[in-house]
Design goal:
The chain has helices spanning 5-13, 60-71, 89-110, 123-133, 137-140, 200-208, 214-217, 231-241; strands spanning 40-45, 76-80, 115-121, 143-149, 161-163, 184-188. By secondary structure, it is α/β, with parallel strands linked by helices. It has a single domain (5-241), classed as Alpha/Beta hydrolase fold, catalytic domain (Rossmann fold, 3-Layer(aba) Sandwich), CATH 3.40.50. Strand 1 (40-45), helix 2 and strand 2 (76-80) form a beta-alpha-beta unit. Helix 2 (60-71) packs parallel to helix 8 and helix 3 crosses helix 4. The longest helix is centred in the middle third of the chain and has 22 residues, at 89-110. Residues 1-29 form the signal peptide. This is Cutinase.
C-alpha cells in the first residue's frame, strides 16, 4: 500500500532528532516553578527524546553555560520547556509551541525588564522558530535573541545560518524569513541531514542509522561543526553578544 505524501511526512517527522539584579518576583510558571527575575532569562527547548521531560536535554546546557559566561551567571536565570518531545511529532510540536508560549509569557509578564534568550535543538529548534515568527512586535522586543542547532527548518541562504552546506536546507523545508529585529544564530553541523537535507529518502536513512546520524547528536563537540567551537557553545556565545 502506497502512503500519501502527508502520511509519509508525519511518519518521518516522528523520527526527527533523537533525534533542547532585578529583584525576585514569584508567580506560577508552566513547570510549577517560581519565576525569578534577573537581567536575562534563557529558555531551552530540547529535541525529540533528548533527555528527560524535566530538563533542557543533553545539547542545550552547553549553550546556556556559554551564555552565562558572557553575561555573568548571577545575572541569568535559566529554565526549560516541559513538553513531550516525542516521536508523535505533530502532537509534540503543538504541545511544545503551547508550552514555550506559556513559559515565555510567564517571564515576560512577571519580569518586565528581563531580556529573554531562546535556545532550541532539533524539534526544539523547529518549535522556537514557529513561536518567534508568530510573536507580536511587543513580544519580540523582549528577545535577547534565539540560538538554534540541528534546525529541521533551516534556510541556508540566510546570513544567520552557520552551515558548511549552502545548497541544502532543513528536511521539513526552509523558513521563509525571520522577523525584523530578531537576532538569530542557527548552526548546522557538517553532515547533519536534518538541517542540510539532500533529499527525503537520504534524510530518513540518516535518522535510522545509529552511527551515521552522529552529526545530529554531537552539537556539544566541534567534530562536525563548520565553526572552530561546538555548535551548542556558539549559539550561547553569539546570542549573548548579539554578534
Amino acid at each position: 500500500m502506497i502512503k500519501s505524501s502527508r502520511s509519509r511526512r508525519l511518519l518521518a517527522m516522528s523520527a526527527v532528532a533523537t533525534m533542547g539584579g532585578l529583584g525576585a518576583i514569584t508567580v506560577t510558571a508552566p513547570q510549577a516553578e517560581a519565576v525569578t527575575c534577573k537581567a536575562y532569562t534563557t529558555i531551552s527547548v530540547r529535541g525529540t527524546n533528548d533527555g528527560t521531560r524535566t530538563s533542557s536535554g543533553t545539547q542545550l546546557p552547553t549553550a546556556v553555560a556559554a551564555f552565562k559566561a558572557q553575561k555573568g551567571s548571577t545575572n541569568v536565570v535559566s529554565t526549560y520547556v516541559n513538553y513531550q518531545a516525542s516521536f508523535n511529532y505533530a502532537a509534540s510540536m503543538a504541545d511544545g509551541r503551547a508550552a514555550l508560549k506559556a513559559t515565555f509569557n510567564s517571564y515576560a509578564n512577571a519580569c518586565p525588564r528581563t531580556k529573554i534568550a531562546l535556545f532550541g535543538y532539533s524539534q526544539g529548534a523547529h518549535i522556537v522558530g514557529d513561536v518567534v515568527v508568530g510573536m507580536s512586535s511587543t513580544q519580540r522586543a523582549r528577545l535577547q535573541g534565539i540560538g538554534l542547532i540541528g534546525d529541521p527548518m533551516m534556510n541556508p541562504t540566510f546570513a544567520s545560518s552557520k552551515t558548511a552546506d549552502r545548497s541544502h536546507g532543513g528536511m521539513w523545508g526552509r523558513r521563509a524569513s525571520w522577523p525584523s529585529g530578531v537576532y538569530v544564530y542557527n548552526v548546522c553541523n557538517r553532515g547533519d541531514r536534518v538541517c542540510a537535507s539532500l533529499n527525503w529518502v537520504d534524510s530518513m536513512a540518516f535518522l535510522r542509522n545509529g552511527s551515521r546520524n552522529a552529526p545530529h547528536l554531537k552539537y556539544t563537540t566541534s567534530t562536525y561543526s563548520p565553526l572552530s567551537s561546538s555548535g551548542a557553545w556558539n549559539i550561547g556565545y553569539h546570542v549573548a553578544r548579539r554578534a
